[in-house]
Amino acid sequence: MDLAHRVIAVVGGDEREREIARLAAATGAAVRAYGFPWPDGGIEGVTLAATAAEALEGADYALFPIPGIAADGTLFAPAAPEPILPDAALLTGMGPGATIILGWPDERLRAAAEERGIALVEYEHDTELMLLRGPAIVEGALQLAIAETDVTIHDSDVAVVGHGNIGRLLARTLVLLGARVHLFARNPVQRADARSAGCSPHPLEELRERAPGLSMVFSTVPSRIVDRDVLAALPANSLVMDLAAPPGGIDLDAAKELGHRAVWARGLGRRAPVTVGASQWSGISRRIAEVEDEG
Amino acid sequence: MDLAHRVIAVVGGDEREREIARLAAATGAAVRAYGFPWPDGGIEGVTLAATAAEALEGADYALFPIPGIAADGTLFAPAAPEPILPDAALLTGMGPGATIILGWPDERLRAAAEERGIALVEYEHDTELMLLRGPAIVEGALQLAIAETDVTIHDSDVAVVGHGNIGRLLARTLVLLGARVHLFARNPVQRADARSAGCSPHPLEELRERAPGLSMVFSTVPSRIVDRDVLAALPANSLVMDLAAPPGGIDLDAAKELGHRAVWARGLGRRAPVTVGASQWSGISRRIAEVEDEG
Amino acid sequence: MDLAHRVIAVVGGDEREREIARLAAATGAAVRAYGFPWPDGGIEGVTLAATAAEALEGADYALFPIPGIAADGTLFAPAAPEPILPDAALLTGMGPGATIILGWPDERLRAAAEERGIALVEYEHDTELMLLRGPAIVEGALQLAIAETDVTIHDSDVAVVGHGNIGRLLARTLVLLGARVHLFARNPVQRADARSAGCSPHPLEELRERAPGLSMVFSTVPSRIVDRDVLAALPANSLVMDLAAPPGGIDLDAAKELGHRAVWARGLGRRAPVTVGASQWSGISRRIAEVEDEG
Amino acid sequence: MDLAHRVIAVVGGDEREREIARLAAATGAAVRAYGFPWPDGGIEGVTLAATAAEALEGADYALFPIPGIAADGTLFAPAAPEPILPDAALLTGMGPGATIILGWPDERLRAAAEERGIALVEYEHDTELMLLRGPAIVEGALQLAIAETDVTIHDSDVAVVGHGNIGRLLARTLVLLGARVHLFARNPVQRADARSAGCSPHPLEELRERAPGLSMVFSTVPSRIVDRDVLAALPANSLVMDLAAPPGGIDLDAAKELGHRAVWARGLGRRAPVTVGASQWSGISRRIAEVEDEG
After folding, report:
1. pLDDT of A64 over the 80 cut
2. Which of C129, C134, C192 sits opposite D128 (nearest CB)?
3. Do D115 and D24 share a structural domain?
4. Which residue ranges run through the membrane (chains A, B, C, D) (predicted)?
5. Which of A140, B133, B172, D233 has the least C-beta neighbours within 10 A?
6. Which one has a higher pLDDT value, D1 or B153?
7. Using CB atoms and an 8 Å cut-off, which of residues 153-192 of chain B contact chain A?
């Protein structure tokens, strides 16, 4: 993709945005950065702007980070010198016909974009990007599981609750590492899929009775399946890890009280920022290509 | 599941139905069989009926085979002494409220069942059953691929076209056997999924240009992606295997003409009949349980 | 390796020798062939000789096939128009200082070579070449196992007896295909190795008591561990496959008598001749390089 | 194994010894512990001794830890209140005919044991125990690699140097996690083995030229293969991990100087103490059984 006459602003985010900005510059576009951790040696082809407004001035595309918008309307940008509020004022510099690619907007940003004639392309709930981040998330879960246990994954009996994008990839990886993986899911299609990947599939309601034979429980579902009853039935000192979006699926306080190692694995998507940044760029660049083709 | 007061008829089919009948009898039901290959030693708890009508007389459930109904309206029953036509006359012996569980009915069977007050439960397009049959189908494809080639799967460059239930499982298995698997799919979500499973994903339109580097092509899509152009670009003596439903996705005549080993892999679902029969029974018995719960 | 001034004779063998001859010619050597199945289109850079003597005339290297020498002293050469007896007369055309690379010689060949001042390089018992052939042998065993059974490898309980080069690779591959693999070996080091690869290891003497839970037994040891007692304890219609060198480790006649599917898997090393020929060439060419370096 | 009339002393060590003591007690033996971290709730069937001498008094078997003897002659026992020196005085309480099972003795301990008529059984260099610890060591290496890198193991190009017990298991595991694994070894038999496990094998001397394409290097050999030349050729910010026994195979200071993430992975064998303790007990108990059988 040759974007030689385009201007791309990368605003907010974390180490992943470094890789995204670097790859954006490799298309030939002029790239301006603001609000993510800037590396000592700079990034080839990328200009650091002094403010978010300066970065956005005249941009054809603005890339905002995946974690989306906080309750106060600001972007995810822990390394920014000050909060970044993407209101109509900030977007002034982007002309009509420009595009913002982002996780998801709140109502204020949606209104501001409409006012300025700016298109929004969302990918928070994009299955492709979730799958591309999958290996980074699963490896992060492995790291935590290895760090927090007195047993090996190999030759252990472990449970994975849920067989969505992350549950499926995690379960398969644990099988390959030599665990006996018990996959708990409500949906019989998911259970059949898990069986073909080498798991022992079970309906959710069997989790309680199988708990005494497990040494690790990974939950990937947002509902509270791993409740106090299940936790009380696990052997002492089990690992319980919650990989679901808030409010999660495990009562972690109860887990700690009962003597388990309770791990809240939010934010694993920020792991392996070079790999994940590159993956996200592959999705972002396909969306840019679609906009260019339409234009 | 205790079906002690139920009568189940297993009519038509192949070696899989032996296992289905055997497992049906293990529930305590009275099981009558007709029209599938009867083993020399019989099947414990199963009675062989002299005609299809005798098997169906008074049955609460009739199990018809997955391959469904031929163009002339008869059931798949290659081992039956005569064709089995499930018309209203044949169904006379089943009372109102009975249930037929089958792949899929044609219009005549649908009308006949309605006339008699018999419910139909279809599973031909059932993803769960397809996934449960998946390992048998994939192992059958491996057997053919090993038999038909002069190279090992290990350390070969192979293509899988399509990433549906069978394509996905086949691709992952080939990865585990040590092949470099190139996965071709139109859908970027499927490509991202394939990548997480260790494949190199590509859009369909790249198949032609990558063909010279491949030694095996497995197609699981019903449309003609692997056309004469692609076939002509493969190295001489490649394996091309079509795993899709008719009309398939590979021009097998052209493949042979061009000196390839062209394999039509229909009917792999009939492999491993004990495993597959047991898998299908697990799906059938869940449907029976649902009917019983509602009744 | 540049062998532009060398003459290589490839004498006897099967389809593997085609690939060996082809790759030998790619070094720049003059290559003459006799006694293996000659392809319709010929082989680039390789001359078909009319007799074995013509092929060997003036050769610096003669490559004889791996299966070695029959009881009557002739080479393995099922496609040759007449038996090839490598006696002193036949070797006359090779000068002193020439080298024969082969599986293993008998006494007559050894004496003939010594008489002519020809060096012998043997590789029948070469672990490297066995490992390079390993994937072809294991895939051949998979093909037979899939063809001969009514169950899938996936989700079956299978036994591998012996954990040498082939047993180890076979066991690991069966694990990856989703079998529960019980590995029987006398040596605790081998059992510990098998455990790390995802097998359940057991001492040999437990085979008898575990037999009723198995559906396939693969024996890779030459001694008779899988005896009539073990065979009688297997479920009816089990698969028993012997992968060991003669006299093998399974009483196959007893196995058939007892209603099992008994498979004698000798000769799997002849599978995938292009891959295996290339593997063998990589080993042969390293030996040639050593001879050249010394010369 | 019934050891009802035996006394076993477990002296020194770390969390692994808890599991060893617990399993020793399950044989019916009287078990006395000293010098490893004692858990709050105690260990069922195990008595905590006040001194090492008290633990050893009348013991039939003494189990000393794997890490062996320090330069000053004391046992590995970081949690002991005072150093444990296994001299003739300390061993006084063990009668002639008793047995010490340990990693390896120094000269003083060997002399002291001989003086007292005590047998020594060593397992430091025991391949079986190394293989049983293998999965714990490999998982520890994965944890460090995931923690220290900005890329995923999945879809990365990584090198493993050496294909001994740990190198082989590590390489295979990295393959299963989706890395492209380049295996560097001097021995062609090891390279052929690595190839069959899905690695790309290379001779050691190619490490330098392939370094620019790698993002992680794991060395398992004690000699300095990964020297400054190789390190300088790696991309900036690579991971280099040394898994070999001292003095190791990587110049870690140079690695840091050159901007790499240099990790010294000694002591990974202490990970997963419950699993590893149980593994070691399986080896120790087999040795006890041999002593009992001889006795």
Report:
1. yes
2. C192
3. yes
4. none
5. D233
6. B153
7. 169, 172, 188-189, 191-192
Q: Are C228 and C288 part of one and the same domain?
A: no
Whichever domain contains D184, its CATH number is 3.40.50.720
Task: Answer whether B40 touches C (CB < 8 Å).
Answer: no
Task: Give the number of other CB atoms < 10 A from CB of residue C44.
Answer: 10
pLDDT of C267 > 80? The answer is: no
Q: Do D131 and C195 touch (CB under 8 A)?
A: yes
* C-alpha–C-alpha distance, residues A100 and A116, integer Å: 12
Query: Is B75 within a domain?
Result: yes
pLDDT digits (tens, 9 = 90+) for C111-135: 999 999 999 998 766 788 889 889 9
**CA atoms lying within 13 Å on the CB side of residue D74:** 13
Q: Report, in angstroms and rounded to the nearest whole number, the Rg of chain A calculated over CA atoms.
A: 22
Residue C184: per-residue pLDDT: 98
Asked if omega into B78 is within 30° of 0 (cis), the reply is: no
As a whole number, mean pLDDT of residues A116-122 equals 93
- C-alpha atoms less than 13 angstroms from C-alpha of D196 in its C-beta half-sphere: 31
Based on the fold, state whether residues D23 and D57 are members of the same structural domain: yes
Contacts of B154 in chain D (CB under 8 A): 196, 198
Cβ distance B155 to C273 less than 8 Å, yes or no, reads no
C-beta of residue A146 within 8 angstroms of C-beta of residue A128: no
Q: Work out whether strand A157-161 and strand A216-219 pair parallel, antiparallel, or are unpaired.
A: parallel
Confidence band, pLDDT 50/70/90 cuts, at residue B124: low
Check if the beta carbon of residue D58 is closer than 8 Å to that of residue D272: no
Q: Between B and D, how many CB-CB pairs are < 8 A?
A: 10
Q: Are B116 and B187 in a shared domain? A: no
Of D154, D155, D198, the CB nearest to B178: D198
Chain B contact set for D196 (CB, 8 A): 154, 178
If asked whether residues D166 and D111 sit together in one domain, one would say no
At B4-16, the pLDDT tens digits run 999 999 999 999 9
What pLDDT, in 10s, does the model give residues C41-89?
A: 899 999 999 999 999 999 999 999 987 788 899 999 999 999 999 999 9
Say whether pLDDT at B125 is over 70.
no
Are D95 and D24 part of one and the same domain? yes
Q: Are residues D236 and D161 in the same domain?
A: yes
On whether both C230 and C248 belong to a single domain, the answer is yes
pTM value?
0.92
- How many structural domains comprise chain A? 2
Rounded Cα gap, residues D17 and D10, in angstroms: 7
- C195 has a pLDDT exceeding 70: yes
In Å, how far is B178's CA from the nearest CA of chain D? 5
DSSP strand pairing (D46-48 vs D30-34)? parallel
Q: Is residue C132 part of a domain?
A: no
Pairing verdict, β C46-48 and C30-34: parallel
Does residue D66 surpass a pLDDT of 90? no
- The residue of chain C with its CA nearest to that of D195 is C132
Chain C nearest-CA distance from B259, in A, is 13
CA of D234 vs chain B CAs: smallest distance (Å): 24
Selected residue with higher pLDDT from C267 and B22: B22
Q: Does the pLDDT at position D270 exceed 90?
A: no
Domain range enclosing B216: 153-264
| D146 lies in some domain | no
Domain assignment present for C108: yes
